[in-house]
Amino acid sequence: MVNSRLTNITSLNATNPLTFKGETQDVHVTVFSIIPCIIINGITCPFTFILNVLVIAAVKRRPRLQSNANIMLACLAVTDVLTGLTAQPLYAIWMTLKTLGISNCALYLVYEIFFTTLAPCSFLHLALVVLERLVAIKFPFRYHHIVTMRNIKLAVPFCWVYGILYCMVLQFGDNKFMMYYIWVALPFVSCFVFIIVSYLVLYFETRRHQRRIKTQQLPREDVERYITDNRALKTTVYVVGSVSLCLVPMCLYYLLRAFGVHLVKESNRAMLRTFLMLNSFLNPLIYCWRQKEMRQYLFKCSTHAVHPVD
């Protein structure tokens, strides 16, 4: 299967060294669309890796940061670490070689494997983050029975297994109809609808809690819990907003292509993919902006890196 995959990529690039996989041969990737992608991926990939590693370390080492919400965000950060370590640099190297007229089909195949594994895995992790917030605010008394470490340890591997299966079907599958509608369209659409509906429920539930706090004399513990949950929800909103901003252009592109509408040139797909991978760089910045203790930990690590302690 790998040999046939390489043969397909080779045949698509044989006539034109600056043609992306899946494009018609009359569509050329211009230098103006490649160079910004190379620069963005090349500059952000080390920061994506380092910042997300620091986020994971902060959650692991700081007991106060080891809430279920932060643990789910740390699991999402693992996918971002791998994006900065593999997908972004591989894509930048491959596009650089393409610009120089050097065809490297094996390198592109490796990039495709990492990208098509990490993209759905990140999206499913995001759905888990939203689900955790939904249970915390909608079912606060059942939260500790639903969101347990055991359930988290079952849900996170499921995301990775699905991402690997998704990659295998997308890269080596023969039935294009089943591949697109079952493995691509249905899961992503289902997760997107779930996230939208969940946020509508969370919005109205949060407003109800705020009215209760203003009109009723609630115990101080309940008020503090509502405030903490509301702050965690706002962090999740920013994370989801960042992912949506980076993901929606790519989803609209493929959705329009499915209906035969080609508003975006195929040569600009490189920028769409770059925009999607850039989300892995934005996530740790949001964590640090929203959580003071995590921000202090990252600055402390940065200070020690610049001025090491003897």
UniProtKB/TrEMBL annotation:
Swiss-Prot/TrEMBL keywords: Cell membrane, G-protein coupled receptor, Membrane, Receptor, Transducer, Transmembrane, Transmembrane helix
GO CC annotations, alphabetized: plasma membrane
GO molecular function, one term: G protein-coupled receptor activity
Alphabetized InterPro entries for the sequence: GPCR_Rhodpsn (IPR000276), GPCR_Rhodpsn_7TM (IPR017452), TAAR (IPR050569)
Source organism, top-level taxon: Eukaryota
Record membrane topology: Multi-pass membrane protein
Protein location: Cell membrane
Chief localisation class: membrane
Domain G-protein coupled receptors family 1 profile: 51-287
Sequence intervals crossing the membrane: 31-59, 71-94, 106-131, 152-172, 178-204, 235-255, 270-289
Protein name listed in UniProt: Melanocyte-stimulating hormone receptor
UniProt organism field: Acropora cervicornis (Staghorn coral)
Organism taxonomic ancestry: Eukaryota, Metazoa, Cnidaria, Anthozoa, Hexacorallia
